[in-house]
Structure prediction request, 255 residues.
Amino acid sequence: MTELTLADYEQAIDGFAARLAELGDDVLSVFLFGSMARGEAVAGYSDLDFWIFLDTTVFDDETRFTTTLHTIINAHHQMGQRGIPVSNAGCYASQANIERLPAMLLPNLLSEAASRVIWGQDIRPQMQTTPESRHYNGVSTFFEMRRQFYHPLSKYLSQDSLTTEARWEIYAGLQYIKYLPEAVCAALDLWPGEHRAIAELTALWPEEDWGLVARVKSFCAQSGPAADVAQLLANLRATLQFIERLNDKICLLKK
Prediction:
């Protein structure tokens, strides 16, 4: 397979927008967010993240909704055929929910440094979240990441060899470190968005090694699950220790 370039990503984005444009007024707006929108994407590793806003009446008509959903899925499939990693290509919401967006998503869509409109209207001025969403993300996101994603991985720290399944499990867990700063901010009722989370936390806790996030992300992009066992475990150990220190700091602030 030919090695992907960021130009291939841009072509995939244009193709995705063109497919959704076929739906006409049923699509209000399509946003690109994540690393590609921030100018931080690594070709061949980074995925493409989209959020699609649909006209409210689409949800009242089964035929229109089915057509819309099939178009979104097919556009997603076409990107995959290009070799582009995709994880959030099919996220969509009704126009009626613009004022009730997830609290952790909202800062990323509002910022022009972290998102861009690839088709339709720029509806940022209408976007809001709810106190309930802020509360839910604040009390659950970081703590559930710690408990569900990372605690189970500690069992591998004492092992000298790893099965293929274990390698993939560790690799998947390490990839989630990109969400960690934003999750920590949510636990502290701070909402800077993914693009500003580390700067916010560095100002709060300058003694912490926030560079670990970038180093682990780089390791995942360059090495993958086939990396040397010692390297995988070293990154896992550093990540788990980092998370436990952050958990202690959050709990002290919340007392």
Summary: The longest strand covers residues 27-33. Residues 131-254 form one domain. The longest helix spans residues 229-254. The beta strands are 27-33, 48-54, 86-88, 92-94, 115-120.
